[in-house]
Amino acid sequence: MGDILRIVIVPAVLALAIAMTGWLRRPLHDAGFEARDLAAPPLVRVGVIVDAPSVSFKVDGPVRVVDPTGREVFWQGPSIAGKASAMPASGPGIRLHGQLAVPLDEVLILPARDGTLEIGTSRYRGALRLLARGPRRQLTAVNELDLERYLQGVITSEMRPHWPAEALKSQAVVARTYALYEILNGYVRSKRGFDVFDDDNSQLYRGIGGETPESEDAARDTYGVVLRWQGRLFKAFYQNTCGGQTESAKTVFLEQDIPPLAGTACDFCGHSKHFRWRVEATKTDLATKVFGPKPPGPVAEVKILEKAPGGLVLKAAVRTGGRSPAEKTMTGKELRSAVNPAKFKSLAFDVSDAGDRFVFEGRGWGHLVGLCQEGARGFAEKTPGATFRQILDYYYPGAAAGRIY
């Protein structure tokens, strides 16, 4: 009987142990991504200062100055501080400080300790690459660091740290996807020497100053997770408030026409102060802004000629009154710039005549493509037990989230 029990029970216990181990170690990602494409997080190159006459920098600790490949050491010491500038047009060369100059138009400054680098007035992890470019010999400062460390400086620069953890995780995934797409496919690097900007030309990155315990948690809890469509990365755009409907990336950016970026309804950003907005422009002022300092008369009509399916204004006409009326056809972007680009929060708007002025009433803030950040916050707050995966499914229909390293 004992032998029979051993034959039956031992394998059963082993099977249960294996199953439990699998459960304890189950990934936070889809099984389809188990193979993974990358062994580890890649380096991301962030353009921190672009095309400037000089760059102030400092490393508070041991440091090496090396050639672009990191093989040849030009200088090393206990610390360094300087105001780098390019040598004259007869170069090449970059002067770092005093008598220290490198006879190349690209140099890498490698701190021995993470977090000891300062560029301008901000502190960063990773290394500093300086590039001298163009006939004016301008400098570009590039912060190079591990993608996961980079994300810690992005997540709560783009969202508030006190927002729900699942919303922050969704931000981590889309920021990682966006950056990795640019690293692997980016136009910027080939032309300018880096992968992403540190502002809203790409995504906000404040270095160590942008890191919070919440951003560290969100990056760690989604480690390596990205979005893909049919197995491929895509440019995971996101914006602050969509106002109830996200837009098509094809319409806004002439980008990939795929279901995750086609636009979708949003029921969760109504709390945002940018959900609806209003801007007024007097007919006299608008005439000057559209037709120049001597318009033929005040604006008599603003007519929307074409809208995208989601409501973005693509084309409008502005017509003056007076004896010799003038008319100008403009894109939505041009009309926004003429009225008040600081207060005109998106291109999803309508216009009405209010006597001596026109009233523009619109929705959302930003380009309105992809994840609605305020919507992600609202989703997490209003949906019991919501996960970042559900948020991503909602805003990127058909996309799959899984680890790429």
Measured as a percent range, the helix fraction is: 25-40%
Number of helices: 11
The main sheet comes to: 7 strands, mixed
Shape: globular
Task: Determine the strand fraction and express it as a percent band.
Answer: 25-35%
Give a short summary of the structure.
The protein has 405 residues and is α+β, with helices and mostly antiparallel strands. The protein has helices spanning 2-24, 147-152, 155-158, 165-185, 187-192, 213-221, 249-253, 283-291, 332-339, 373-382, 388-395, and strands at 43-52, 54-59, 63-66, 73-77, 80-86, 94-97, 100-102, 106-111, 117-119, 122-124, 127-133, 138-146, 196-197, 225-229, 232-233, 238-239, 276-282, 299-307, 313-320, 327-331, 349-353, 357-363, 371-372, 400-403. The strands form six sheets. A seven-stranded mixed beta sheet has the order 4-3-8-11-12-1-13.
